[in-house]
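Here we describe the complex-level prediction in full. Unlike the single-chain runs in Section 2.1, the two entities below were treated as one system.
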Amino acid sequence: MGGRDATMVLLDENGIRCDGRKVDETRRIMIKAGGLKNADGSAYIEFGDNKILVGVFGPRDVHPKHMSNTDTGILRVRYHMEPFSVGERKNPAPSRREIEISKVIKEALEPAVMLEKFPRTAVDVFIEVLQADGGTRCAALTAASVALADAGIPMRDMVAAVAAGKVADTVILDVNNEEDQAGQADMPIGYMPSLDKITLLQLDGVLTPEEYKKCVDVGVKGCKVVYELQKKALKDKYFGNGGD
Amino acid sequence: MTSVSVLDELKKAQILELLEQGKRVDGRALDEPREIKIETNAIPKANGSARVFLGETEVICGVKIQPDRPFPDTGDRGLFICTAELLPLSHPTVETGPPQPHVIELARVVDRGIRESHMVDVSQLVIEKDKSVIGVFADNVVVDYDGNLFDACSYAATAALLTSTTPKWNWIDDKPTLVEGEETPLPISTIPVSVTMGKIGSHIIVDPNGDEWASMDARITITSDSDGNICALQKGGSDGFTQDEINQCGEISVRVGAKIREKLKEAQKGSQ
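The structure predicted for the assembly as a whole is:
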């Protein structure tokens, strides 16, 4: 929504960004697998100042029953932001933005989950954004993949996600809130590294065809970095010293 | 959506079989959109309007322009809002009531494509800074469904905006006051064109029709502007794309979009 502001220094003469990062550097990422007692699988992610909790239930019975499919299981995703997660209090009712993001994340996860193994059932993914600071959909998707794996649901691959973008005419990795507001373009990417498949892709902002290709490339490389952290989170829980 | 008939399955198999031979059910080339028909000034009471046929998909867009309060943080810019709605008469499965997620996505993707291209120059739509601005509302209604509503709504809204005129208001006695007889064309800076591609198996097809839409594994909508730059994108559907496919789709969208932009320009000229 508008808000493009050219006065802010997004990239200094040394190629350092407003939060001190280099152009191809992600924010600090911390992923923890598990943590919730009642969910079948869960994960918590801190992605810069984003703090997101994901709980997975299922495969389980579908209610309402008419939603069930006799050929395959179904995936249901709810992305939700807490009223206190942003600067000005957010109305707790689901906004149109949240409904769209829920759908986009669902479709990004579907290629990864072997739903056909569980006909007539549902896998529910609940994403709660506790604090938001730009790039929540990518952080949420990354954590949701870990939570699904933590729930023991058979998967073809995990989806790792991070945004690429453009600030000060330069392609960058992992767009933060300031860069999203004042920058020129934001391209969230979800990617399955083992299968070489992009399952989430959006863009707003103007890119030349060359920049477009570069953004996809930078984003895919970033996803590979995030992927290693997802695997590490699962290893830490299941093979770490003393476990969780 | 809850059940799939045998016929649907057979149709799907036929579509894929034809694609393996490089053909489509309706005889089009893989990168060929359906015929686009644009009637402008379809709704004279609107400030601009268009009725667009994309094959047998039919959309009407009306633009209403009226004074409004600016958003608190953007008092130096007018408003642009684009919506889309599926009318119950457009398809037997459409129900009345609150919009379904796929309709919300449709409206937001169409809005984003036009908004991010900066087609409407909202900086010229200020009546009194921080107090009153001009709001431009492009509302799409889907009248008949045969696939690819993203592009049909986008073309309808773009054609309606291109042919819109805006009244003039002056700030008098702390309120916007209409100045009679001073209509000017809406300030337009570029013509965005969205191109939606479906992926069926490993085939990429431009502008899927209703049957193709029902058979798609994934889709991608890419909007490019008059300079041939890409300004918005949305991937959807339950499968993914390889990086090569994403690059290929980017090229197709700019190339096919350039041809469609000429159609939109013709429609604009035709209405003058």
